[in-house]
Amino acid sequence: MIRYQLLEELVPVLQGQLVVCNIGSPSQELYALLDQPSNFYMLGTMGLCSSIGFGLALAQDKTVIAIDGDGSVLTNLATLSTIGNNRADNFILLIVDNGSYGSTGDQPTYAGDRTSLAKVAEACGCGNVVEVAASMTADALRSAIAAGEQTVIVAKCESGNVDVPVIELDPIVIAERFAAAVREPVSR
Prior knowledge:
- Helix 1 (3-14) crosses helix 2 and helix 1 packs parallel to helix 7 (137-147).
- The chain has helices at 3-14, 25-33, 49-59, 70-75, 78-84, 117-123, 137-147, 171-183, and strands at residues 18-21, 39-41, 64-69, 91-97, 100-101, 107-108, 129-133, 151-156.
- By secondary structure, it is an alpha/beta fold.
- Strands 2-1-3-4-8-7 form a six-stranded parallel β-sheet, sandwiched between helices.
- It has a single domain, classed as Rossmann fold (3-Layer(aba) Sandwich), CATH 3.40.50.
């Protein structure tokens, strides 16, 4: 299963959630599958998806799901230390680990070799770390949302991209509609 197929299975779980999505192909694929105002598509700043998502979780009470990639997390490993040493039980970091830099040509990452991002997250102090096969990601995400506990999910999938159109929304529009979704009252 490649990232697009994994995201496709997550659509019912992500509907209505605050989602911060990694740059490049992941954001474009999510946009093609489930465009919603509560999605923040990263159009730049590789390595900062998890940091932005975590900061948002600290600033308000709604659940925040950051969908990051192994290559992106490897460029900013300090984010795992920050997450591990600070608590936000409304934060879920989903690392889609396909062992490659998918947006730039599928060059291999060290996560596809000997580096275990699940073990790195645990070593950084992240208390609830789950590594799953791609096919089990939706169940793991549902469980994390229901538990209301800060969670890092490392979803192992195959490398590969699907040809989808670029995001045609203006970055200002993406930010404004996301901010409006953040401000909406929590429905209980």
